[in-house]
Amino acid sequence: MSARWVAPSAADAERLPPEEVFAAGERNHHISNTAYPIAHDVTWRPYRVTRTRHASVLARAYEGIDDLCLYAHVPFCEVRCSFCEYTVVQGQDLKATDAYMDRLEKELDLWLTLLGRNTRTLHGFDIGGGTPAFVDAVRVARLVEKVHQGFRQASPSAERAGPSGYGISIETTPKIAAAEPEKMRALHDAGIDRISMGVQVIQPDLLRVLNRDGNGAELHRRAVDHLRDAGFCRLNLDVMYGFADQTLPGVEATIAHTLSLAPEYVTLYRMRYKLTRISHQAPRVKLDDVRAQASLAKAMLKSAGYAATPGKNTFSRIAGDVGTSEYLTRRVIEGMPYLGIGLGAQSFTHTTISYGDGAVGKNLLPYFRAIDADRFPLQDLYELPLVQMMAKFVAVSFYFGEIDRAAFHAKFGLSVDEAFPREVEWLLARGLMENTEHTLRLTDEGARHFNGVIALFFAPSIQRYLLDRDPDVAKDMLVRTG
Q1: Which of 137, 117, 121 has its CA nearest to residue 177?
Q2: 111 and 11 share a domain?
Q3: Quick one: 324 and 410 in the same domain?
Q4: Rounded to whole angstroms, how far apart are CA atoms 184 and 192?
């Protein structure tokens, strides 16, 4: 491809020793993960685009992008879970959600004016949050219809695609699915073919600490029954590990309970403490405990017929189905550009990454003001050099624990080995990654050292941040305010 990347800063021009970066990633295991970048207010500062240049940079960034995915962020939740790091607004009534959905539709119109209506082909659409199922199903269906009208449809023969030619996925909580079967049916009738629900943990004491005791195990069976009755045949259940005071028997009980619900997919999320209400607990979580919990959970899932490659966090019991939504699958494997709309949403092109208004303060007012002023609601827009875009590609690829060689070359014009020669050689020599027919893949040992391995593909400025950071005194785990 012929993308035009900006020049790297001096901090992104150095090359750091692989063994030192690997050790820094292991040492800072709470933040060295797929949530790339790290400390972007520092490491990405040289690449920040001034607001007066937003429109021109965006227009150039989307030139030549014919294929993309779409994410719509619906930030509302009845309560904010203590482990949540996302842009969430708590306790809003339906009047507030209607006002938000009005502006979400208006933002979509703004983007379609820039991109052109029915000029781009959509390959996946995720509606996330927050809890998008909190919103009236009529409003969700209306948004889906506007998306259908604004983009070309992907080929109907696309893998697992719905009637629109692209798959649509949404999220719910056990409480909503158990209490509102008619809403679940309406969401399915709107053309949404995949749904994800958070089990997370089932221990009552831990649920209370996580401010999630209203979504306990007693609701799960009723919720799943309602989802099946509604017609959902692609159900994902989220499970979490790596909490302070979480035990191996507790993880075992959670996985056993999840398996009893017979979902098509199970996604394992390690707790990431950064910017959460319980960030102060992070030092109590030791890497050996996290590894033991992950190993137990993966072994139980594989024994029950759920498949995943080493390092992959979504397990599927459907042969040939990777388990993730079309939106995420295309992002992970191909690095396909995606447009994010809504409060604090992230967008990604071949050369830029942006974050929507409201991402810092987690409140609706900045987003509303931007939309009402007919301007793109962007808090931050970054025009990035090749080294940063490659790092972002690999970080997202590690959701599957592997890098697709052909996709990397198609996107950047050079091979993974050419881009990261010392790093790949170092990892192969230690048995942490291996070559398959199409990918550079984590081995089982590499998956155990996930945090160190992924750091080797980060841009140098972020590797330097990890090298200089002392996890015992770091302040960047705290909840961001203002």
Answers
A1: 137
A2: no
A3: no
A4: 10
Rounded to 5 degrees, φ, ψ at 266 are: -130, 130
**Along the chain (482 residues), what's the average pLDDT of each consecutive run of 10 residues?**
87 96 96 93 96 93 96 84 57 75 97 95 94 94 97 67 72 94 98 94 72 74 97 95 86 94 94 62 75 94 97 95 96 97 95 89 87 95 98 97 98 97 98 97 97 98 96 61 30
Provide the percentage of residues in the chain whose pLDDT is more than 70: 86
Looking at the fold, whether 177 and 285 belong to one and the same domain comes out as yes
CA distance 108 to 344: 14
Q: Give Cα separations from 478 to 43, 166, 278, 474 (angstroms).
A: 18, 38, 8, 9
Q: What is the CATH number of the domain that holds 405?
A: 1.10.10.920
Q: Pairing relation of β-strands 168-172 and 121-129? A: parallel
Cα 325 → chain centroid: 11
- pTM of this structure: 0.91
How many CA atoms, within 13 angstroms, populate the side-chain half-sphere of residue 6? 19
175, part of any domain = yes
Q: Does residue 395 share a domain with residue 325?
A: no
Whether residue 199 lies inside any domain: the answer is yes
Residues 103-137 as b or e (16 or more Cβ within 10 Å = b) = bbbebbebbbeebeeeebbbbbbbbbbbbbbbbeb
Cis peptide before 421 (omega within 30 of 0): no
Q: What is the rounded CA–CA span in Å between residue 240 and residue 254?
A: 9
Q: Residue type at 82?
A: S
Q: Is residue 353 part of a domain?
A: no
Strands of 291-349 (E only): list them: 314-316, 338-341, 346-348
Residue 375, Ramachandran bin (φ over 0: left; ψ between -120 and 50: alpha; else beta): beta
**Host domain of residue 397:** 7-38+386-470
**How does the average pLDDT of the chain come out, rounded?**
89
Domain membership flag for residue 346: no
